Amino acid sequence: MNHFYNILRYAKPYKNFAIGHIIANVFYALFGTLSFIALKPMLDVIFDAKKVVPTSKPVYTGIMKLGEYAENYLAFEMNQLTGGDNAKALVYVVGLIIVMFFLKNIAGYLANYFLVFLRNGVIRDLRNSVYKKTMELPLSYFSEQRKGDILSRVTSDVLDLQYSFLSVLELIVREPLTIIFTLIAMLYISVNLTLFVFVFIPIMGFIISRIGKSLKRKSDRVQKEQGVFLSTLEETLTGLRIIKGFSAEDNFNTKFQESTTRFYNFSNKLLNRQNLASPSSEFLGICMIAVILWYGGNLVLSGNADSSLTGSTFLVYMGLAYNILTPAKAISRGLYKIKQGSAAAERIQEIIDTPNPLKDKEGAIDKTSFDSEIEFKNISFKYQDDYVLKDFSLTIPKGKTVALVGQSGSGKSTIANLITRFYDVNKGEILIDSINISDLKTSALRAQLGIVTQDAILFNESIKNNLKLGKQNATDDEVIEALKIANAWEFVKDLPNGIETNIGDAGNKLSGGQKQRLSIARAVLKSPPIMVLDEATSALDTESERLVQVALENMMKNRTSIVIAHRLSTIQNADQIVVLNKGEIVEQGKHQELIDKNGVYKKLVDMQSFE
């Protein structure tokens, strides 16, 4: 139930709709009960009950006699209106019943009207909250999660809540009040009969709880398996070229079908267990009605066990007893839904409650400029068990270009992850203008940085919107200028719609070199003082590399740059080259100085065989 209360917290902004929903449900339950009670005068007329009609207006004598007062008052008013004519009385009673049912249904509509805004508002805010938290969490969190599972939580799990937890909001007031009002009316008619109802209610509750005991576990299995096949689908769409290239369609097809078969089996068990709710509660209810028919029928036939129980009163009582069945069934279904929704709520809450180790400190500094230098001061870092960087120290003065080289796994890309604060260091500190970056607002830190990665990450948008990611207020002229600097305008100007051209999912309408130049143009348009280039040319062919390299050189002019290079031909003009091996600096200097040393750098250059 804790998860239920956590979800209900999101209803706070919609409390006015909740109040309206509650008030409307109170009237729904009240008019629903009164509509059955109003049948009694009609049945008295039909059966010609020998009932003495009061000739004077009855006097209210207290709450304990409220029912009797209401009945006598109604009979008195009816007699005054009809003059004792039963035909007229019947018309008036029928009209009264119609009014009661009309008011009941108006109240029911209003309750649902308010609930629509309440439920959809909670779902919207919950989905926004999960998405926002997903954006805030560090990259390390997602390296341990399936993408499909995250998608499943944001989409289907939230949808499950809409039809499980939040649909129960309708039951919280309406159904219990309907039962309470009905029981009050039944107690007034016959205490003895109503005691039979109280005997059956706990029996029904016990059987229903036994049926629903394992629903949460079964629902959790269904939702987890849905995350598995969504992950397989996401991986298939991402790696379709490789799957086809290696003729691995059958392997992935088998993997997907195995997951959907497990989902099929789990879903069948869950839904069949849910389907027990309605027939079991209805059967128990009919058993209760049967007992009332037997016992109450004997009371009416005997004529002395309960003198107030006439034929018409007994029929009204049976209607009231049956009126309990519908809310009782709804409550039993609601309990199942809470069990089912509990698993979805737990999975959603797991994301929302995940601590963010990279969250800004209290009073974090909002730095807006870069003035002197970047300093890596005795930093050590590990992703899991082994340190990737060990006691690493490096100072990068403003305006200088520093290249990081070394074999794969030497820690080059880790430097980029740490300066951008995608991860926090385990030991030491990274300083910008002598301020630890962990003391800066993350948004302020990243505003100083432009990032170009090996994989050109583009979005299914126009070229202009892709470039404006870091500068939303950029003009078309600024976009075009950035494209020129990035050596990309030459192909963009020939596209059908120029900068308004949509480049498709992940930019798949463009070549690798074109995508990379757009990535560079995006960083240029942002125009940050510090550039981080993480192997920006390593995935390109020779011609594309040449064009991109020119673009990079244009971009790095008058900027501080950290260049992580795989192809050493691209960093010969760097102000300083730092050679890494197993997370430690083994050499540093300019290109020619390192060649003359005839050390690790010279070996790396020789292996790439460039002159």
UniProtKB/TrEMBL annotation:
<dbReference type="InterPro" id="IPR011527">
    <property type="entry name" value="ABC1_TM_dom"/>
</dbReference>
<dbReference type="Pfam" id="PF00664">
    <property type="entry name" value="ABC_membrane"/>
</dbReference>
<dbReference type="Pfam" id="PF00005">
    <property type="entry name" value="ABC_tran"/>
</dbReference>
<dbReference type="GO" id="GO:0005524">
    <property type="term" value="F:ATP binding"/>
</dbReference>
<dbReference type="GO" id="GO:0015421">
    <property type="term" value="F:ABC-type oligopeptide transporter activity"/>
</dbReference>
<keyword id="KW-0547">Nucleotide-binding</keyword>
<dbReference type="InterPro" id="IPR017871">
    <property type="entry name" value="ABC_transporter-like_CS"/>
</dbReference>
<keyword id="KW-0812">Transmembrane</keyword>
<feature type="transmembrane region" description="Helical">
    <location>
        <begin position="89"/>
        <end position="111"/>
    </location>
</feature>
<feature type="transmembrane region" description="Helical">
    <location>
        <begin position="18"/>
        <end position="39"/>
    </location>
</feature>
<dbReference type="GO" id="GO:0016887">
    <property type="term" value="F:ATP hydrolysis activity"/>
</dbReference>
<feature type="domain" description="ABC transporter">
    <location>
        <begin position="374"/>
        <end position="607"/>
    </location>
</feature>
<dbReference type="InterPro" id="IPR027417">
    <property type="entry name" value="P-loop_NTPase"/>
</dbReference>
<dbReference type="InterPro" id="IPR036640">
    <property type="entry name" value="ABC1_TM_sf"/>
</dbReference>
<feature type="transmembrane region" description="Helical">
    <location>
        <begin position="179"/>
        <end position="208"/>
    </location>
</feature>
<keyword id="KW-0472">Membrane</keyword>
<keyword id="KW-0067">ATP-binding</keyword>
<protein>
    <submittedName>
        <fullName>Lipid A export ATP-binding/permease protein MsbA</fullName>
    </submittedName>
</protein>
<dbReference type="InterPro" id="IPR003439">
    <property type="entry name" value="ABC_transporter-like_ATP-bd"/>
</dbReference>
<dbReference type="InterPro" id="IPR039421">
    <property type="entry name" value="Type_1_exporter"/>
</dbReference>
<keyword id="KW-1133">Transmembrane helix</keyword>
<dbReference type="GO" id="GO:0005886">
    <property type="term" value="C:plasma membrane"/>
</dbReference>
<keyword id="KW-0813">Transport</keyword>
<feature type="domain" description="ABC transmembrane type-1">
    <location>
        <begin position="22"/>
        <end position="340"/>
    </location>
</feature>
<dbReference type="InterPro" id="IPR003593">
    <property type="entry name" value="AAA+_ATPase"/>
</dbReference>
